[in-house]
Amino acid sequence: MAKDHFPLPFMDQMLERLAGNKYFCFLDGFSRYFQIPIDPNDQEKTTFTCPFRTYAYRRMSFGLCNAPATFQRCMLAIFHDMIEESVEVFMDDFSVFGNSFDTCLNNLDKMLQRCKDAHLVLNWEKCHFMVKEGIVLGHKVSSAGLEVDKTKIDVILKLSPLLTSKVLEAFSDTPVFTDVSLKTSRR
């Protein structure tokens, strides 16, 4: 099967478009790829074997090689005229924005109608409506701009340091340090 190289959006550009707005709605898609049906003619390509029979997916599975690209393409097709203007989509994370409460509410209404028309299901427990700031892809966006989520930095700061070269070498094929004494020439 040919690889689909459809690109994901540039995260930095997306965050810059969000930053500076006054109101946001952050929505999360439910079961991500599983909402996309697989064409019956293509289902045999997803076949896997179990001890007593074979199975094929009817809906796109997380592990399929082209699933991320297919899903992003599908989201862009659904929200094509709203992307960059009132909605940002990164996989199953949707950000609706506006510089006034009414504008953001109207944008949300249009976005939710698209979800309804396309039979997209949202995970309401992870949705936040009409907020003045929020976390998107590890960054805090607000009317003040953009900053890194401090909780992510705290997690990194709490990691224990790598103390030995053996630990470092476990992540590499080549030694991190070499013993200089072995390389000295004898005279």
From TrEMBL:
Domain of life from the UniProt record: Eukaryota
Name the UniProt record assigns to this protein: Reverse transcriptase domain-containing protein
Signal peptide: none
Domain Reverse transcriptase: from-to ranges: 4-140
Pfam families: RVT_1 (PF00078)
A single MF term (Gene Ontology): RNA-directed DNA polymerase activity
Species name: Tanacetum coccineum
Keywords linked to the UniProt accession: Nucleotidyltransferase, RNA-directed DNA polymerase, Transferase
InterPro entries per record: DNA/RNA_pol_sf (IPR043502), Rev_trsase/Diguanyl_cyclase (IPR043128), RNA-dir_DNA_polymerase (IPR053134), RT_dom (IPR000477)
